[in-house]
Amino acid sequence: MRTEAERRPARGIRTRLPVSPWLFLAPGLLITGGFTLYPFLSTVARSFTDARTLTAGRFTGGANYRELVHDPVFWTALRNSLLYVAGVVPPLVVLPLLLALLVQRQVPGIAFFRAAFYTPVVASVVVTGLIWVWLLDDRGLVNAVLSALGSGRAGFLSDPWLLLGSAMAVTVWKGLGYYMIVYLAALARVPRELHEACAVDGAGAVRRFLTVTVPAVRPTMVLVAALAAVNACRVFSEVYLLAGPGGGPGGEDTTLVMLVQQAGTGLSGRTGYASALSVVVFVLTLGLMLLVLRADRTADR
Amino acid sequence: MSGPRVPGRAGRRWWPLVVRYVLLLGVLALTIGPFLWQLSTSLKGPGEDIYRFPPSLLPQRPTLANYGAVAEVVPVWDFALNSLRVAAASVLTNCAGAALAGYALARLRFRGRRVALLVFLAALLVPAESILVAQFLTMRQFQLNDTLLGVVLPGSIGALNVLLMRNAFAALPPEVEEAAFVDGANAWQRFTRIALPSARGTLAVVAVFAFMGAWDDFLWPLIVLSDQSKFTLTVGLNYLHGTFADNQRLVAAGSVIAVLPLIVLFACLQRSFFRGAGEGAVKG
Predict the structure, then answer these.
(1) Where are the alpha helices (DSSP H) in chain A?
(2) Whose CA is closest to B35, among A128, A124, A142?
(3) Which of A251, B7, B52, B227 is the residue whose CA sits 20 to 30 A from A161?
(4) Buried residues in A271-300 as b, exposed as e (16+ CB within 10 A)
(5) pLDDT class for B46, splitting at 50, 70, 90?
């Protein structure tokens, strides 16, 4: 999309009144400035104060950040959010690509399958979360099947580690269709001749996948990795619904954003401290994005 | 996975197709199955054991009683109406605001255009989760907490939508508008009569994603709303789940109410939804 716009450096037409363009821009700039950029700056500023919901607070320097470092709950939350990234990104890079290959060929009924695979993306995370809460219940369908297979029931929603894993599984399940579409668009641009040439050389499907498909869609894989990483790092709803508002047994499954929500909202919110947490979330997402893009560049050499 | 194999031609033709369909059906069961299980649970009456094993996939005597019951314990139809209001408002503001700003960025020449573009690009870098607390405080300041307006406002004109519209306008051939300019059409006329009709496709994409985004949003409404009568469906469902967790039939009925409108909307629009990706795919 970027290239289309850049190809023609449309210089545009000057308006009679110099103010007209700004009238076009006013609503967008107002909302973006007032509800994204200003809140961001005020979050950074507030993170250096002891503000609460009902009081503005005074400048306390790095006190919030010092407290953060000594707060074991923060480390648990950071660990969980990073584990989430590590657990969710690899399957979300690989599985949707395989799925896209599966639905790429125009066989009868394929439009139905594509739409069906996209359904979990369309549904709200609350709905999908509740569906899986019921499926993974101690007496739910998954445990019924497991015990029928003779492996015994698992506490998907009571064991802290299994809980975190279950939430990751829901995230992956819900994201498959979205990234499938991203890959489908990329696959459509892979020249067919490459596959044919490779097939003539006697390469099997696996070889063709590794030598033709993967290199051709690698930029898309990097994009998917970056998007999935940023989203995983901000995870809230899946864990909130599966583990409950408190973040599971003993709060062991709390994530960073859950911590922000717990600490910073409501009438007794410690907004200064929560702002410091928010800054950590921001730095983390930005850092992950840069890391993924950089990893791609080093792999290029 | 076949190497240079030598079986008969017919044999080579059909079995990969069978494997493909088996895989497709397997994934279908995984993606759609959970929804159907929820639907089935919501249709099971109180006389039917929903925990029984082997599980009965179809309700023995389907009943809509749970849908009536869920409306008795929580005002689920009010929740739906609130969600609809929020989503409709978000579609309107996003389409109008993004089209206007996108047009100025793509087609009008003025001092400060790069700065304006930078504002929207910078906004893309800020994850909504990192400014929750500040937005919450802003809403308190304007006394918009616990109102639907407060739910809509922060996402009312997404920076990404502005950039999408900008690219859509920039991809149109500029000659028609230049001719209209020579004929004396002002910026507003060029925008409404020439540019906007040509960018309908992208506008539809913005509308669909604005609707889905607003209808599905959970964290922000959870923070800004506290009065039950103002709840949107997602927050209301979470409340239902928290309060009546042991009544799976009710929770199932509630979640079906929340997801059905979106699935219907999506089913109607899916053809245009996948046009870009689908039609470009390799024909087998």
Answers:
(1) 2-7, 20-32, 38-46, 63-69, 72-104, 110-122, 125-135, 141-148, 160-187, 192-200, 205-208, 214-233, 237-243, 256-264, 271-300
(2) A128
(3) B52
(4) bbbbbbbbbbbbebbbebbeebeeebeeee
(5) confident
B47–chain A nearest CA distance, Å? 18
Contact flag B266-A118 (C-beta cutoff 8 Å): yes
Residues of B in contact with A46 (CB under 8 A): 133-134
Q: CB B37: neighbour CB atoms within 10 A?
A: 18
Candidate from A21, A35, A204 with C-beta closest to B153:
A35
Query: CATH assignment of A63-300?
Result: 1.10.3720.10
Residue A13, C-beta contacts closer than 8 angstroms, at least 6 positions apart: B107, B108, B109, B177, B178, B181, B187, B190
Percent of chain A with pLDDT over 90: 63
ipTM reported for the complex, 2 dp: 0.89
* Predicted local confidence at residue A148, as pLDDT: 86
**Over 90: is that where the pLDDT of B220 sits?**
yes
- In the predicted structure, residue B4 carries a pLDDT above the cut 90: no
Confirm if A228 and A93 have CB atoms less than 8 A apart. yes
Contact: B131, A40; criterion CB under 8 Å:
yes
| Neighbouring C-alpha atoms within 13 Å toward the C-beta of A44 | 8
At residue A3, does pLDDT exceed 70? no
Q: Is A1 helix (H, G, I), strand (E, B) or coil?
A: coil
- Beta-ladder partners of B221: none
Out of B4, B20, B263, whose CB is closest to A102?
B20
Q: Do A185 and B136 touch (CB under 8 A)?
A: no
Are B104 and A21 an interchain contact pair (Cβ–Cβ within 8 Å)?
A: yes
To the nearest whole number, what is the mean pLDDT of chain B?
88
In chain A, which residues have their Cβ closer than 8 Å to the Cβ of B233?
124, 126
Indicate yes or no: CB of A126 within 8 angstroms of CB of B219: no
Domain definitions of chain A by residue range = 63-300
Kindly report the pTM of this predicted structure: 0.89
Contacts of A34 in chain B (CB under 8 A): 138
Closest CA to A131 of A231, A258, A237, A232: A237
